[in-house]
Automatic annotation (TrEMBL):
PROSITE patterns: 4FE4S_FER_1, 4FE4S_FER_2. Pfam families: Fer4 (PF00037), SCP2 (PF02036). PANTHER family: IRON-SULFUR CLUSTER-BINDING PROTEIN, IRON-SULFUR CLUSTER-BINDING PROTEIN-RELATED. This is SCP2 sterol-binding domain-containing protein. Residues 185-214 form the 4Fe-4S ferredoxin-type domain. It comes from Gemmata algarum. Keywords: Iron, Iron-sulfur, Metal-binding. The keyword 4Fe-4S does not apply.
């Protein structure tokens, strides 16, 4: 074999230009970068340095995905507002899918242009596909929302969506990771476009958005993302558990089966996203709301509230009670909730699945000691409908639970009996058993 220096590829490159050095690229002009994003199809763009405090909780994940990253280019792509507002969710979902595809194409075009200019860059997806092997943990490469807020592209509304000052929440977000510094970066805007009108609260069929600003992510995930992730898993297990087609039909209506086929064939469909549909915030969006608020509610909000549709809720959850009270004309489908696959996932996921109304009247400190395959210690405090999870054992517990980690996960996944685990002392409780029962009510699955 010929020496490397004599290889035709090596000779061609050396004849054309010097090999790249390990020195970081010079800062790129921020104005040029933003203009490039608009030229590639974005509607607005901003920049954030990787060392910004707003990225502290995801910096390690971003660098793991793309070690050279030094700056992040955040951008927005507008959706067609009337499509998102349509009670016919096929219309709104088509708009979501097309805009997601467009957002990914914009990011890809930006990276191609940067590569041509000798600037290293990476374009993670704006939505799906994601790193599903990590589900139910963090499955995304970059959290687009906090990056967009830090870049000055909007602020988070009460519905936990980014509201752009001009385009409102009718946008989808993209991020490009750049292996070079930018000459300037954005800063959060000095006001929140959210109007605190709480129409999103009124429109959400499962009560995921509280009037006091509380957000129940598990309620949103269970219903709105029914045909994604955990909802799809629940459906597959329903098929497996059904002894016959008649038994299956009793549990799943034909229309729901057809809807799942449609999601598999054309892309998973959101069941609601009504919070986006009814939001009147944004300079380009607000006029109809200002001109006739009652008319806006009648035309946009009421049709979504009155629509007859199945609501997917976890039995014993706050969403189940809320939906029955507020939307009795919408039939409920009782489904399984998020279930952890590790003790770390159990502890990390507790704030997501915690049901504050189910915790009413409970004020207690719990110590958890897990042994076996995944040892861990944690303190869980439930007080005044709030939850706090700490690593390690702190303070004096009202109830202390020691459990084999595999047994505990089997109990959470409804594969093992907690009673049998207590009898065999695979789970040991020091303190009133009623506190363990009360704890379980706060985390229905």
């Amino acid at each position: 074999m010929a020496p490397l220096e004599d290889h035709p590829t090596v000779r061609a490159v050396r004849a054309r230009t010097a090999l790249p050095t390990t020195e970081p690229p010079r800062p790129i002009d921020a104005t040029w970068l933003k203009a490039l994003a608009l030229e590639c199809g974005a509607d607005d763009a901003g920049l954030v340095a990787i060392d910004r405090p707003e990225l502290d909780d995801q910096r390690a994940d971003i660098r793991a995905a793309y070690p050279p990253v030094r700056a992040l280019l955040s951008f927005v792509c507008r959706m067609n507002r009337d499509a998102v507002k349509a009670p016919a969710r096929s219309v709104s979902n088509l708009e979501f899918h097309h805009t997601i595809d467009h957002t990914d194409e914009v990011a890809r075009a930006i990276v191609r242009r940067l590569d041509a200019a000798g600037v290293p860059a990476l374009n993670p997806p704006s939505g799906f596909p994601m790193e599903m092997q990590q589900f139910p943990g963090k499955i995304w490469v970059v959290s687009h929302k906090p990056v967009a807020v830090a870049a000055g592209l909007g602020r988070m509304g009460i519905h936990r969506n980014v509201i752009h000052p001009r385009f409102g929440n009718f946008v989808l977000l993209g991020t490009v990771l750049i292996g070079a510094d930018a000459s300037a970066q954005g800063a959060p805007i000095d006001y929140n476009p959210c109007l605190s009108c709480k129409l999103c609260v009124a429109a959400c069929p499962v009560g995921a958005i509280g009037a006091d600003g509380h957000f129940d992510p598990s309620a949103c995930l269970t219903h709105n993302y029914r045909e994604f992730m955990g909802g799809f898993i629940d459906w597959v297990e329903t098929v497996v558990e059904s002894d016959s087609k008649t038994a299956y039909r009793k549990r799943v209506a034909d229309a729901e089966t057809a809807s799942l086929w449609q999601s598999l064939a054309f892309g998973p469909n959101y069941k609601a996203a009504y919070c986006l549909a009814v939001c009147p915030a944004g300079e380009d969006v607000i006029a109809p709301f200002l001109q006739n608020r009652a008319g806006f509610v009648a035309e946009v909000v009421k049709p979504l509230q009155q629509k007859e549709e199945p609501l997917y809720v976890v039995p014993g959850s706050d969403a189940e009670q809320y939906a029955a009270r507020k939307f009795p004309h919408k039939p409920q489908r009782k489904v399984s909730g998020i279930r952890p696959t590790s003790i770390a996932g159990f502890l990390r996921g507790m704030p997501i699945v915690f049901q504050r109304e189910q915790s009413a009247g409970l004020n207690a400190v719990y110590h958890f000691t897990f042994t076996g395959h995944e040892p861990a210690e944690a303190t869980v405090t439930i007080r005044d409908k709030t939850l706090a999870v700490q690593t390690g054992l702190h303070g004096t517990p009202a109830c202390a639970i020691t459990a084999d980690s595999d047994r505990w996960l089997g109990f959470l996944r409804k594969e093992r009996s907690i009673v049998w685990a207590l009898v065999r002392r695979k789970v040991r409780v020091k303190g009133p058993l009623r506190l363990l029962t009360a704890f379980g009510k706060c985390f229905p699955s």
